[in-house]
Amino acid sequence: MSRLRCWGRRRIVGAAAGCIGLALAGLGIAACGGSSTSATTGGTLNILTPSFTDYEDPQLGYEATGWEARYNVYIPMLTYAHATGVAGTQVIPGLAKALPTVSKDGLTHTMFMRQGLKYSDGTDVKACDFKSAVERMFDINSGGAGFYTDIVGAADYQAGKANDISGITCDDQTGKIVVQLEKGAIRGTFNDELALQFVAPVPPDTPPKDQTANPPPATGPYYFTHVTPGQSWTEERNPYWEKNNAKIMPDLPSGFVDKITSTVTKNFSSAVTEIEQNKADDLTDPPPTDRLQEVQSRYSDRYRTWPTVSTYYFWMNTQTPPFNDVKIRQAVNYAIDPAALERLYGGLMAPTQQILPPDMPGYSKIDPPLYPHDLAKAKQLFQQANPSDTDITVWTDDETPNDKAGEYLQSVLKDIGFNAKLKIVNGSVYFDVIGSNKTANLDVGWSDWFQDYPHPNDFFDILLNGDNIATVHNNNYALFDDPAINKQITDLGHADFTDQVKSQYGALDKTIMEQAPWAPYGNRTWTTFVSDRVDFSKVQFHPVFQEDYSTFQFTQ
Known about the structure:
Distance between the termini: 35 Å
CATH class of the largest domain: Alpha Beta
Structural class: alpha+beta
Shape: globular
Number of domains: 2
Strand content: 15-25%
Number of strands: 20
CATH topology of the largest domain: D-Maltodextrin-Binding Protein, domain 2
């Protein structure tokens, strides 16, 4: 997912081994089934964020701030263990009674909806709500649709050739749900994909259009009570959680605070001051670079850094001049200095020049690097290519330091011979803008990617498989479309995740970077900075969903 996602995005699960049936002591697992007897409950958690999320609609949202907020709201059939570190990447039952049973051929997945669940408006949760949620996701052209097109009948439904997805059958009486995959579509990541919010059940009468302003009723411990698009959102305790759903899903946590408000604060330096002065409780993003040293030195007792599985990069439109020329793309890679960008991010960035981040399975360091910083080499390649079109637009969002990264890219492109114009877009709509084929002059720009789940195909298939290029909510910003590589990505995604396959992903990273559709520059370090009324020792950070708001509680 793009910036910013069982632990960080979610709540905390059981201190007892029975929470997920595993002895995970020492792996950062918290107490399930609600608050412990010594915990402080109640109060309003006030969060500040630099931009509104893309959508507060579970079938549409694909930006991490929103995933973070919705983790406690919309529970998919499966979810991630509410824990930190490796334990947080384990898939566990959500609305489903158990993990799916899989047929011998790997194509049929069967699961059962827990009986007696209710949405926050009091209506019953039914098995066929899962099917309607998947269809709704296709109806509204979700950016997550690519995860589910291998379900039998999904492609026809998406194309308007069928009235429903024939590969999903359901029985509201028994709770049985059967998902049939296309032949050749066996893959070990399907449980991870069933744990994504894109297919979290919502009432079947939810309109097939963006519901950000009026989010659908929820199954989790919180639900949205007020959303002002572009400005703020508020979550409060689901009235049917404690008296109903928590009893049916005892392994899932209930949270401690009664209310969570998230407010957009474009001047993030002032947001830092509000946390320092205890006028707000948490920041979704790291402090601005010019405030980092102050926070680190004066507030170390309530400030912490976390590694993330992410890659920050500059994409180049490989289908139109001048970046349809591989020499030009390679020139940009030589011109970029990851160390300079690390400084722009205040040191909260580990330099890289490849697609997969180090903590992603399948990562293999490209050594020696393909593009050691060499401005003279970049200029030489530019001159050899001799592009006829040197007027280009550089895209980035308005969140610091991403805006500074865009300015850096503009400067570098000018240095090698381009006439580069910078286009800065509001962060709340940036990915919609650059993901639409109606947007003109999408030449080159900034992006990032945080893992959806711990498998390298999450980086390659969504971001670099030409078969997944979409007209709206597109994530392949480079429009990279190499048929041989598309096939390799698809084949690897269907293969068992053996050591051999992991090594093939490492080789694929190098193969794609030789074509240079991206200029990757860093793997991000994230931060937590809270007010002194938050019990900092209890706050947890999830490897996929970042801060887990269900772990936040007040000291008094």
